[in-house]
Amino acid sequence: QHGNTLSTGIKSDSPLLLLELGYATESKFLGGQPYIGLAWGPGSNYTSVNASLSQPALSGSRSDTVFGGTDLYPIASLAWNNANHNWMSYITGNIPVGTYDPNSLSNLGIGHAAIDAGGGYTYLNAKSGLEFSAVLGFTYNAENSDTNYKNGIDSHLDWGVSQFLSANWQVGLVGYVYYQLTNDSGSGDRVGAFKSQVAAIGPEIGYAFSFNKQAAYFNLRGYKEFNAQNRVEGYALYAQLSLPLGGPGK
Q1: C-alpha closest to that of 157 among 175, 136, 131, 142
Q2: Which of 179, 158, 192 lies closest to 227, judged by CA?
Q3: Is the pLDDT of residue 59 over 80?
């Protein structure tokens, strides 16, 4: 089910530019480093289907394209460090203000609110350059008031293993596992006990450098998805650039 439409043979391409403005204080909270941020971005989405069933008719192949903005993604996190060991807890969510139409195949917003929370661990050995990270989170989805459809509770695990070849360059392997824990529901649910899953793996390369006399970072990751059920499966490419905007601390 795709909004108000039942579809088969879904294909989708979505290039996005996500911008996040954040603030980290020098003061500690519960012994950790606090951070707050808010993300939003412009983009486009092209989606096609082999066949669709919507009120009131069955149709053959169709497609549409949308240009606009994403939902708002607020985030707050707290991080701790002890030698080579690093821990992090976070809470984030989805404020549904993005481009969305329940009768369209292509959307940038998801049409409902959501809240996601979890934690992570990173092992980083500054001498050997070995790094390992894993973040586990769970997402609770509110009901979509346009479609009366409610997604189940999601779980997701993101992981990475990498090696710093020098003080600047990093190469490694990354992946993620997404698994829906509970069934979809709601009066608008026309597909019954619907649960989805997907996994992915791929290479990464990172580059650490200085900007405004502070640490900055660029990362490029590519993923090949597999083992998908009730979900599109394909390729994903992520480029991340982190720049400090404030001046260096005293």
Answers
A1: 136
A2: 179
A3: no
Q: Please state, in angstroms and rounded to a whole number, the distance separating the CA atoms of residues 136 and 242.
A: 22
Angle at 89 between CA 69 and CA 168, to 5 degrees: 75
Tens digit of each residue's pLDDT (9 = 90 or more) over 183-235: 989 888 877 788 999 999 999 999 999 988 888 999 999 999 999 998 889 99
- pLDDT score recorded for residue 136: 98
> For residue 48, which of 64, 28, 30, 31 has the smallest C-alpha distance?
64
Q: Which two tokens stand for residue 229?
A: 């059920």
Residue whose structure tokens are 């003061």 = 27
What tokens appear for 3 in the block? Answer: 């909004």
pLDDT tens digits, one per residue of 139-160: 999 999 998 989 999 999 999 9
What does the H/E/C string look like for the chain?
CECCEEEECCEEECCECCEEEEEECCCCECCEEEEEEEEECEEEEEEEECEEEECCEEECCEEEEEEEECCEEEEEEEEEEECCEEEEEEEEEEECCCCCCCCCCCCCCCCCCEEEEEEEEEEECCCCCEEEEEEEEEEEECCECCCCEECCCEEEEEEEEEEECCCCEEEEEEEEEEEECCCCECCCCCCCCCCCEEEEEEEEEEEEEEECCEEEEEEEEEEEEEEEECCCCCEEEEEEEECCCCCCCC
| Average of per-residue pLDDT across 54-72 | 80
Q: What is the edge-to-edge ordering of all strands in the sheet holding 57-59?
A: 6-8, 51-54, 57-59
Cα angle value 63/69/71 (rounded, 5°): 105
